[in-house]
């Protein structure tokens, strides 16, 4: 161009000027978003009035007029307010919820045994804690050990009574793994080395061949395992049949197992559906399409009423086990399609580059495709988990006393006849807290995992 | 970018002396390939000697990318034989793996792994394919990153690098497997003009080490500078192949003349 605006030979960018007034900051935001014009202003005022009325109503019902202490629903209704009127239906009867709280959470799990539920929760939290401890290594192994073996340990603790040899062995294995995981955490922080390395050093094998190390570690773990087995054999827990399990505890039990099993089974099914081997592909496709096309409640009914007819009588399957298997199958089919979606988002060039470097199918999948695909899938996966958690309330229809059926049952108690809204509000609140926390955590995960990618 | 005084303008300057030997490392015999009904490769016959640098050019859709992608089995040929280091490419997975370990490839769109750092991109295959210890793989990776002049980016992610830098990482990543043959599939076509020369510099440097190279490119300056042989393809056939001198100054076929007049016109 001939008309250059820069007279200097050297290019000097112009200095940046401040933006026009009232376009940034609080005033700018208000002008832009709330009072942009006459219509905007009307909507803003009406909106504020609506929100205000709603908040006042909620406050009146839930707090101001609410009854916190009473012995029956009748008493709740007859409580006299400071202005001399009876509460009636203008205030919530939280007293009933408080009385029933224990059942909402533990179902009919006997009071003196409820520490077992709390213990299981504590073990699970402790088991997963190393994930958030930066100095601890072997995070994947920790996670896998928890997902694969914790349910057996929990089953042993929660069921109590005489454990069969299978449950005894698996739960002892779980306990041994749990102890190992925490020994590893302790040595990682106290001595800055993994427990495996410490054992190898203590036995004086450090300078020997790597293959020997494996045997030393195996022997060390065997000792821990035998210890765990001996300890668990000495347990004398009262048997609590699964028919007594209930409340939030049962809901979390079913959905927790379904969620934990969904990712691995979904990944396997999705890979199978994309497989070049026809038998595997057809089987996986049929599994996914069949269980995705059927409502969960149908699968539950089939599992509880029909499956026992086909299975041998001696097996005498537990109703809860059948329900959990059914929910897991359902979850796997949905998860498989989410994973497949994630896999399809990975550009072909990624596979090609990895193949060109000589990586085989499993290594391409493990190191290149899955890490990228799982990151893309986080919002969908968590959305699915939230759906799954809420879907588990369907087990109330086949007579499992989960939190929802417990909430209903409290309204049929002679003392609390008519207590319907409050328990449901309570259950809604519980679900909201859990689901919202999951959603927030997924957003946090997305940010942290995406953080390193830079611009893309 | 390439203000480094040691780098030369890759599109001019002296011809890089060839270290080609008589040993044949790649042999294509009557290779045919179809995409459905479309016949992409028609009776391709080609033999590449150790240390030979071949530039393949031609209009888009002429099958040049498909040709080099057949050499490491990213594409499957349906008729004919391809032998790499005397090993035939067939359905035997072991043969394919052996050949891929020895043949590096650089793509038009870089295809770096975005979830791994530059260093991890370079060490992944040496660790998991060759079984090298991590420390050794990292040492080798740093050597090659220095050779492509970006060791300081090792801890960054691909998304934080410019296109030219990414392509140089892609070259280093391939070299970390110490291949004997390198395939380049239009390595500079996706780059901004300012970044093309930094990648070509690295490729010229690689040619100087005696690497066997098959390069699909439209950079005719590069071809003049390093190629032992230029192959011109059209409609899935090799139309003409010759030394760069003969190819550019004395093209035999009318199709080649037309192609050259079009790409050298601007």
Query: Which CATH C-level class of the largest domain in chain A is it?
Result: Mainly Alpha
The biggest chain-chain interface is:
A-B, 23 and 30 residues
Number of helices, counting only DSSP H or I runs of 4 residues or more of chain B: 9
The radius of gyration over CA of chain A amounts to 29 Å
Main sheet of chain A, how many strands, which sense, barrel? none
| Helical proportion of chain B, percent range | 25-40%
Computed structural class of chain B: alpha/beta
Average pLDDT rating of chain A: 88
Span of the ends, CA to CA of chain B = 24 Å
- Strands of the widest sheet of chain B, in order across it, are 6-7-8-3-9-10
- Could you say what the CATH topology of the largest domain in chain A is called? MetI-like fold
- Rg for CA atoms of chain B: 18 Å
Coarse morphology of chain B: globular
- Beta-sheet strand percentage of chain B? 15-25%
For the secondary structure, the number of strands of chain A is: 0
Distance between the termini of chain A: 34 Å
Q: Main sheet of chain B?
A: 6 strands, mixed
Give me the number of helical elements of chain A.
17
Our estimate of the beta-strand percent of chain A is under 5%
Q: Helix proportion of residues of chain A, in percent? A: 55-70%
CATH H level of the largest domain in chain A: which superfamily?
MetI-like
Structural features:
heterodimer, A: 456 residues, mainly alpha, MetI-like fold, 3 domains, globular, B: 266 residues, six-stranded mixed beta sheet, 36% helix, disordered N terminus
Can you walk me through this structure?
The complex is a heterodimer of chains A (456) and B (266). Chain A starts with 24 loop residues before the first helix and ends in a 5-residue tail after the last helix. By secondary structure, chain A is mainly alpha-helical. Chain A has 17 helices and no strands. Chain B is an alpha/beta fold and 266 residues long. Chain B has helices at residues 64-71, 93-102, 118-128, 134-147, 163-175, 193-208, 220-226, 244-249, 254-264, and strands spanning 24-35, 38-49, 53-57, 79-84, 87-88, 103-106, 181-185, 212-216, 229-234, 237-242. In chain B, the strands form 2 sheets. In chain B, strands 6-7-8-3-9-10 form a 6-stranded mixed sheet, with helices on both faces. A 4-stranded antiparallel sheet of chain B has the order 2-1-4-5, covered by helices on one side. In chain B, α3 (118-128) packs across α4. The radius of gyration of chain B is 18 Å and the shape is globular. Chain B starts with 23 loop residues before the first strand and ends with a helix. The chains are: A mainly alpha (456), B alpha/beta (266). The interface between A and B is medium-sized, with 23 and 30 residues.
């Amino acid at each position: 161009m001939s008309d250059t605006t820069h007279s200097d030979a050297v290019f000097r960018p112009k200095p940046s000027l401040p933006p026009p007034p009232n376009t940034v900051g609080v005033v700018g935001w208000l002008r832009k978003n709330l009072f942009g014009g006459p219509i905007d202003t009307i909507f803003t005022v009406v909106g504020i009035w609506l929100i205000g009325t709603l908040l006042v109503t909620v406050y009146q019902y839930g707090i101001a007029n609410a009854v916190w202490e009473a012995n029956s629903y009748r008493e709740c209704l007859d409580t006299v307010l400071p202005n001399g009127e009876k509460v009636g239906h203008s205030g919530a009867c939280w007293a009933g919820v408080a009385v029933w709280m224990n059942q909402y959470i533990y179902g009919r799990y006997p009071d003196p045994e409820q520490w077992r539920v709390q213990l299981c929760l504590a073990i699970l939290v402790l088991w997963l804690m190393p994930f958030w401890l930066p100095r601890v290594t072997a995070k994947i192994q920790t996670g896998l050990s928890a997902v694969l073996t914790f349910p057996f340990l929990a089953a042993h603790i929660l069921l109590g009574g005489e454990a069969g040899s299978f449950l005894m062995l698996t739960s002892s294995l779980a306990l041994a793994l749990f102890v190992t995981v925490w020994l590893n955490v302790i040595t990682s922080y106290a001595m800055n080395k993994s427990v495996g390395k410490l054992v190898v050093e203590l036995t004086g094998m450090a300078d020997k061949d790597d293959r020997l190390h494996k045997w030393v570690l195996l022997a060390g773990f065997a000792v821990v395992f035998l210890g765990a087995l001996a300890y668990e054999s000495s347990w004398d827990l009262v048997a609590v049949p699964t028919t007594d399990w209930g409340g939030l505890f049962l809901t979390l039990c079913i959905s927790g197992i379904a969620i934990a099993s969904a990712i691995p089974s979904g990944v396997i099914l999705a890979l199978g559906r994309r497989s070049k081997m026809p038998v595997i592909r057809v089987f996986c496709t049929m599994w996914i399409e069949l269980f995705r096309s059927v409502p969960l409640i149908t699968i539950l009914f089939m599992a509880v009423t029909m499956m026992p007819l086909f299975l041998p009588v001696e097996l005498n399957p537990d109703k809860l086990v059948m329900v959990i298997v059914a929910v897991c199958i359902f979850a796997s089919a949905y998860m498989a399609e989410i994973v497949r979606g994630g896999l399809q988002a990975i550009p072909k060039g990624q596979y090609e580059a990895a193949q060109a470097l000589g990586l085989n199918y499993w290594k391409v999948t493990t190191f290149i495709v899955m890490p990228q695909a799982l990151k893309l899938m986080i919002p969908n996966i968590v959305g699915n988990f939230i759906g799954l958690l809420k879907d588990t309330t369907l087990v109330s229809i086949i007579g499992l006393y989960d939190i929802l059926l417990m909430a209903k049952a409290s309204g049929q108690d002679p003392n609390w006849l008519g207590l319907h809204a409050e328990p449901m509000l309570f259950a809604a609140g519980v679900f909201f807290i859990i689901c919202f926390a999951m959603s927030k955590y997924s957003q946090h995960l997305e940010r942290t995992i995406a953080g390193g990618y830079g611009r893309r | 970018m390439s203000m480094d005084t040691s780098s030369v303008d890759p599109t001019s300057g002296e011809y890089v002396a060839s270290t080609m030997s008589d040993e044949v490392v790649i042999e294509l015999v009557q290779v045919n390939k179809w995409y459905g009904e479309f016949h992409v490769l028609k009776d391709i016959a080609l033999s590449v000697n150790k240390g030979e640098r071949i530039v393949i050019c031609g209009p888009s859709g002429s099958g040049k990318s498909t040709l080099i992608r057949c050499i490491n089995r990213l594409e499957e040929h349906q008729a004919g034989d391809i032998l790499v280091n005397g090993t035939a490419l067939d359905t035997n997975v072991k043969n394919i793996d052996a050949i891929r370990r020895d043949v590096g490839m650089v793509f038009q769109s870089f295809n770096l792994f975005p979830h791994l750092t530059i260093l991890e991109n370079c060490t992944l295959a040496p660790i998991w394919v060759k079984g090298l210890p991590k420390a050794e793989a990292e040492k080798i990776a740093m050597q090659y990153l220095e050779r492509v002049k970006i060791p300081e980016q090792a801890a960054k992610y691909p998304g934080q690098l410019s296109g030219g830098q990414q392509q140089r990482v892609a070259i280093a990543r391939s070299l970390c497997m110490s291949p004997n043959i390198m395939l380049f599939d239009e390595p500079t076509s996706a780059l901004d003009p300012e970044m093309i020369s930094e990648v070509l510099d690295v490729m010229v440097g690689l040619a100087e080490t005696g690497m066997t190279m098959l390069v699909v490119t439209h950079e005719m300056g590069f071809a003049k500078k390093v190629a032992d042989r230029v192959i011109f393809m059209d409609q899935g056939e090799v139309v003409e192949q010759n030394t760069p001198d003969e190819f550019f100054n004395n093209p035999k076929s009318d199709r080649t003349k037309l192609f050259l007049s079009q790409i050298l016109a601007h």
